[in-house]
Write a structure and sequence with these properties.
The structure holds two protein chains of two kinds. By secondary structure, chain A is α/β, with parallel strands linked by helices. Chain A contains eight helices and eight strands, in the order βαβαβαβαββααβαβα. Chain A is globular, with a radius of gyration of 21 Å. By secondary structure, chain B is of the alpha+beta class. The interface between A and B is large, with 43 and 35 residues. Strand 1 of chain A pairs antiparallel with strand 6 of chain B.
């Protein structure tokens, strides 16, 4: 399915072709096509391949009791900075892993590696989002241990990554106060599919025309159930709330 | 530009289905694309033109059934046409809305030769 890496998986062989019959010509009398033509009722979700691989990833995470989070935002909102702070401040509390998605370079992976965390960098080339297939490959190389926390930092893009399930447990959208408080209704899909919204760079609030009330109001119009945490990765303000959220989300080992 | 990925997924599905049915060429392809699916049609059509070159779909006639968005208000249970994710229920003004229709992204059928 993925346009970027091109490699094929065996997953396709297990796909059930809904609506496909071995008596396809039965349908032909409904249509005026000339002899030799066949109508194939495909009835397949276009994103099915990605969604199947995402569910495969999800099963892997569930089996190993791994909390996988998909971090999405526009470029420059502070995803990598948030991870650097988190991995440093929470060092030793959980086994952490990071998958970095960028079009080019290993700059973000280098920053994460410097915190002593195991990291994989995916370069999508011209691709504008990560997909489940890329995560599958990254996991094969990474081999995370049980009861770990995996951060997947998506390509900085507030549009395209919204459509692609990676198998994550929660999607976390990050917005910084320098971006404008109307982002949630300008790019609604990302806010619609996320469960937590982190508002970053709140230390800059005195200098920018950004209203915390407004951004929340707009975001709730798109997604009334969205949670918010306000932080500054520079001053450290609010980060304890994010750490508490994380700890509460880590699955207890002795579950059902 | 995730539309290119969408088009590549369609090509993949169409190629597999036609290969299974031993088709040389695909004459027609019918798609369902919902209003709220997040696909920008001009970007989709542009990606399509480039991506189908030298594939079984190159000469295929593409029919796109656009599915209008439809929402269900979780508060007053009104069902209404939904064009934006951020617009409230037109009856009671609530924002707790479930999308009933408009997220479709499907390859419906192929006519092969």
């Amino acid at each position: 399915m993925c346009a970027t890496c091109g490699c094929d998986t065996n997953a396709s062989s297990s796909i059930q072709h809904i609506g496909e019959h071995d008596h396809l010509h039965d349908h032909a009398h409904n249509h005026s096509h000339s002899h030799g033509k066949t109508i194939v009722a495909v009835e397949k979700d276009i994103l099915q391949e990605n969604n199947l691989l995402a569910q495969r990833n999800r099963g892997y995470f569930d089996a190993k009791n791994i909390l996988a989070l998909n971090l999405v935002s526009s470029p420059g909102s502070g995803k990598t900075s948030l991870l650097e702070r988190t991995l440093t401040d929470m060092k030793g509390e959980f086994p952490f892993y990071v998958i970095e998605g960028d079009q080019q370079t290993t700059r973000d992976a280098d920053r994460i590696y410097a915190t002593g965390t195991k990291v994989a960098q995916i370069n999508t080339g011209k691709g504008c989002h990560l997909d489940a297939h890329m995560i599958l490959h990254a996991l094969q190389g990474m081999k995370p241990v049980e009861n770990a926390v995996l951060f997947i930092e998506n390509v900085g893009n507030l549009v395209c990554p919204a459509m692609f399930d990676l198998g994550e447990k929660e999607r976390v959208v990050i917005i910084s106060v320098t971006e404008g408080d109307d982002k949630p209704i300008k790019y609604p899909d990302m806010f619609h599919t996320s469960t937590l919204c982190i508002i970053n760079k709140v230390d800059l609030l005195p200098y920018v025309p950004f209203s915390l009330d407004k951004v929340k109001e707009y975001a709730r119009q798109v997604n009334p159930a969205l949670e918010f945490i306000e932080v500054s990765c520079t001053s450290g303000e609010g980060l304890s709330g994010w750490y508490q959220w994380l700890k509460a989300k880590v699955p207890v080992t002795e579950t059902v | 530009m995730h539309e290119l990925s969408i088009v590549m997924s369609i090509l993949d599905i169409a190629e597999k289905e036609s290969a299974k049915n031993k088709a040389v060429q695909i004459d027609e392809i019918e798609l369902e694309i919902g209003e709220l699916s997040g696909v920008d049609m001009p970007a989709f059509d542009f990606a399509w033109q480039q991506a189908v070159k030298a594939t079984r779909l190159e000469a295929a006639v593409k029919t796109v059934n656009h599915i209008p968005g439809e929402g269900l208000c979780m508060n007053c249970e009104a069902v209404f046409p939904m064009h934006q994710l951020y617009k409230p229920c037109p009856v009671c003004g609530d924002h707790f809305i479930t999308i009933l229709k408009g997220k479709e992204l499907r390859v419906k059928s192929l006519v092969i030769n």
